[in-house]
Every structure is written in C-alpha cells, then in structure tokens.
Amino acid sequence: MSATIDSNPLLDKLPEHLRQFIKPQDYKDYTPINQAVWRYVMRKNVDYLSKVAHNSYLEGLEKTGIEVDNIPSMYGMNRILKEIGWAAVAVDGFIPPNAFMEFQAYNVLVIASDIRQLEHIEYTPAPDIIHEGAGHAPIIANPEYAEYLRRFGEIGCKAISSARDYEMYEAIRLLSILKEAEGTPQDEIDAIEKRVEDLQNDMGELSEMALVRNLHWWTVEYGLIGTVDDPKIYGAGLLSSIGESAWCMTDNVKKMPYDINAAYQSFDITKPQPQLYVTPDFAHLNQVLEEFANKMALRTGGLSGLTKLIQSNALGTIELSTGLQVSGTFTNVIQDNGKPIYIQTTGATALSYREKELVGHGTLYHAEGFGSPVGKLKGINLAIEDMSPRDLQAYDIYEGGRVTLEFEGGVKVSGEIITGTRNLQGKIIIISFKDCTVTHNDTVLFQPEWGIYDMAVGKKVIAAFSGPADVTSFDLITHVPSSQTIKAKKSPAREELEGLYQKVRGIREGKADNKELQSIFTIVKQNHPNDWLLSVEIAELLQKNNTTELLNQVMTHLDDVKNRRPEIVHLVDGGLELIFEKEKSLD
C-alpha cells in the first residue's frame, strides 16, 4: 500500500481544471471496520455476482488487481490500470457532471475514496470506493465497454447544462453526504430529500446534461446486458450494492430493451430502481450514444444550440463553418427566419481554431465580450469563406479598403479593413476593421470609438457545446464545493471496537493467535452488543479451526442480535451462508 509507486502517465496529461478535484487517498484513514465492510461486500459480491454478472466482471477483478480482503490503494490500481490504458484518481464525493465526464474522456476513472458506514453496507447514495473500485473498475477491463465509457465522457462533457442542473447537483451531493454521515438528524435528511424531490418535479424541459445523466444512469450505473428474459449485470451501481444486485434480478423490477428513450426516463438516487434497461451487447451502447449525440447542439449547432447556451448562463462555445470557435458566456442572438444572424457574448471571450486559442484573441483582448454577424452577404450566393482572392477583391474585401458589408437578415458592417486571418485551408476566418460601425436595422451593435472590430467569418453555426474550445483560455480553477464529506465520529467505545476488528484481522492474517478470539468475543458481547459483523468474522475463524464450543456461543449471540435488530437478519445470514456453504463445498 506504499505511495511510492509511480503515477500512471495518463494522470500527467490531465488539465489543471480537472486536477482541482483530485484529493490524495490517505490509506491510513481506512479503519479496521472499513476494511471489514469492504471484505464483507466483496465476498458477497464475488459469490453472488459470479452467477448474475456479465463475465467481464470476474475477469476484470483479476485484471485490475482488486482484492477481496483489502480496500484497493489508488497507487496500486494505477499501476495495474495502466496496462489496460486507464488510470484512477480519488475525489471527495460527487463532482460536477461535466468534470466527471471529462475525466472519462481522458481514460481516467473517478473514485470517491471514502467508504460507506457499516450501517449502510448494502447501499449508499454517496459515491464510495466500493461503488467505484468494485463496481466501475472491473468492467472497464472489457475493451468494448471501456471505449464506450471513454466516448461517453468525450461527448457527455460537451453537453449543455441548465442553471437548474447545478442546483440539482449541489442538492444531491448534500443529500448523499448527510445520509451517509453518522447521526444526521432525520429532519435534516427529510428537508434535503424534499429539496431534491422539488427540483426533480420542477426541472422544466430537460437540458442536454440532464438527458446525458439519464443515459449514464441507465447504462454505466444501472445497466443490464443480454436479453430481457435472461439479463446479466454490468452497471456499477448494481455491482456494488449487495441488496440491489439481488433485487434487480426479481420480477419486481421491470426489464426493458435499451434504446434512446432511456434518456427521457428520470431516476431517484435514493430508492431502488423500479425498471432497468437491457442492452444486447456493449456495441449497442455506442450505437445509442451516437444516435443521441446526433441530436445534441454539439452536432446540430444552429439557433437552437445558441439558445441552449444563452439559457445555460455558463461558459460555452460555438463553432462556425470555417472552424472558428468563439468561447464565452453567450447572452444574445439576433435571428432571422429561424437562423442566427448575429451572436453576442458578454465578458471574457476567446477565439480559437481546432481547440487552440488564436494568437492575440484571448480573454484579455476580448475582455468585454464579442459580437459578430453570421451568414452570407445579401444578394451574393458565394459566402465570404468560399471566396478566392480574386472574388474578395471584386467585392472590395481586401486590406486597406473601406467597405460596407450587408448580411442577409439586415446586419451591416462598415469600416476600413485592417487585415484578415486565415485557417489552415486558406479560408478567411476573421476580418479586422478600424473606424467600424455595426448595425442591425436601427440598433447600433458596435461603434468606431470602441476600437478594433474583429468580425468572425462563417456562413453558419455548426456546433454549440459546454465549456471552452481551448481549456487554457480561461481560469477554470473555481471549484469550491458547498459541502464536504463528513467523517465518522471517534469515541472511546468506537476506538475499542476498531481495535477488536484489527485484532481479528491480525488473527486471520496469521499475525496473532486464535486463542485471543475468546477474550475478543467476550468484550464484543459485553461492550458492543449491537455489532454483528465482527461476530460473523469470529465465527468464520472458529469454523475454519473447528472450535465448536466457542462457535456455538458466537452463533447464540448472533441469534440474539438478530432478534433485537431484525433489519440486519439477512446481513448476518448472508455472512454465515458464505462460511458454511464454503465449508460444505470443501466436504
């Protein structure tokens, strides 16, 4: 578990705005109880999922080096994941959806390094290392699925969000933290659950990001594969939940063929899912993803894409037909006959070509915003971008000439041309003017005293997407989460119990004598009568060593715990089944 293992080189390629979410995994923070929770869940999972999970799961556990007995070290995982072209990073709980997707686009698995409490051993709404490490990591060893995950991230991080989406993210993050935290008052949980429910019921028209999040949920998190009548599990949410992985296989959960309609099916993160989608194979996931991407502003552009960016009130980018990309906060669009004829950003804006900022066109130069006509010149079939040098001169579009360009829709640009900027194919993408006036009918859009006017060249908007074209153009180091995960409280009783778990772990690993089990059990029974998992671990060791008398005492104690705590009966029985079924199989 040493931190001296070399980092995965994929991590060195991550941009700074993603690095802000990474936190170190301090392996010493995992307590003996945490390790016991991991071991219980993994033993149950490997036993049960070997029957109902896609065969990539068990193969992936072996390939990714994830052990049943020990919480994985991020350093060790990176060393092994490197062999299949992936990496892993630790984060604090939920991170914004766009960032989560972008990590995937870099082939980096995001792992919430905290682990669920013993009280939530079956399921937690909070992302944790069981969910990420035991759920996501094994399946990415399948090349077809790994490509789906990467491609999903690449497309998903470009999805345009609404202002409500971020409110929902913050509310769900807080809910997951409070539900996982020890001793949170029920009224606090009720209040934030109501907040989440109210938001879910008042999201309006779903944004692209909301639709992408739905697709992610019904595939990456809760996906089934095979046939509706004989499905197997591949979704990480199911693979990491010993309760829901069994529940989902019953007739209580409706199974439906997976298609693009899943994007419009919402979900409740706090409850078992009433329906699940079944894909015939991993290749089908990519087909549906491409079908969905074809409907995104990323590929359709146009007025609808610009409208989505304006409504998002967040940093976004449009790409023109010349390849010129304008990144900023879009605040206005003038339209004519359903087409954008003038676009406007407010505040810091950058111009790029092929995701690289153009020299001299960064946010310092365009600090107050950027506006430009879009489309063809009125009465001329040939767009500016398609004009040859001779055509440009014929229409007086050349350096040093004074010209009035009237566009379809009524935008006029009048001024003296200083210079033009061309792309690699030789097409003009920017024309710079001095002494320039830009108008639309009676509205003045730019005045000479404002300085140089840089006009973007493009007959149409071919793409619109979230975030900047060049991630280095803007300061994106802004993540200040409104809530932090809450660590389990320490007390003398808790520390004593942790010490007992550590002793049992030491006995199992051959570092201590079995004779100590009697005294450990006596203390558990007297001082920690409601704890069940340690007694199950003690029973495992006693069964292995044929210590019948003490084993009978432990089993009697567990019966007593089950009588007092009916909610954990199935957990105790599940743990004991593993012990005694294994014993039977050896006979």
TrEMBL record:
Keywords: Iron, Metal-binding, Monooxygenase, Oxidoreductase. Fe cation binds at H131, H136, E221. Its cofactor is Fe(2+). SUPFAM superfamilies: Aromatic aminoacid monoxygenases, catalytic and oligomerization domains. One of its GO terms (molecular function) is oxidoreductase activity, acting on paired donors, with incorporation or reduction of molecular oxygen, reduced pteridine as one donor, and incorporation of one atom of oxygen. InterPro entries: ArAA_hydroxylase, ArAA_hydroxylase_sf, Aro-AA_hydroxylase_C_sf, Aromatic-AA_hydroxylase_C. Residues 1-342 form the Biopterin-dependent aromatic amino acid hydroxylase family profile domain. One of its GO terms (biological process) is aromatic amino acid metabolic process. Belongs to the biopterin-dependent aromatic amino acid hydroxylase family. This is Aromatic amino acid hydroxylase. The lineage of its organism: Bacteria, Pseudomonadati, Bacteroidota, Flavobacteriia, Flavobacteriales.
